[in-house]
Amino acid sequence: PDDRTMCLQIGHSDAFQIWLNDALLAERDEVGWWTNENVHLVSVLFRKGVNRLALRLVRRGESARFGLVFSRTATCSEHYIDLGSRHPNAGEA
Fold first, then answer.
1. pLDDT tens for residues 7-46?
2. Global pTM?
3. What is the C-alpha separation between 10 and 35, in angstroms, rounded?
């Protein structure tokens, strides 16, 4: 509903890339161990309206885990729960 600067907490057990509005935010090729927040991206700006978040996830073994949490920047602890999503090919609601 408005511009928001957020913290993205990313958990990954294999390689990944993440883009916001066609700009690469982060990528990792290796991971030492799985946690639900291996990477913290602070001060990520989401603009009012529709933003396009794209992920590329890799699974080199039998299983892979990935998690993504949107939270307030100050502490990365209070999660946003009022975000919406839509299929990229769907019309505007």
1. 999 999 899 999 999 999 999 998 778 888 888 899 999 9
2. 0.77
3. 9
Cβ neighbourhood burial of 64 (10 Å; 0-12, 13-18, 19+): middle
- Fill in the amino acid letter for 72: R
Distance (Å) of CA 41 to CA 35, 59, 60, 72, 76: 15, 22, 24, 11, 9
Q: CA 21 from chain center: how many Å? A: 12
CB 39 within 8 A of CB 66: no
* Chain length of the chain: 93
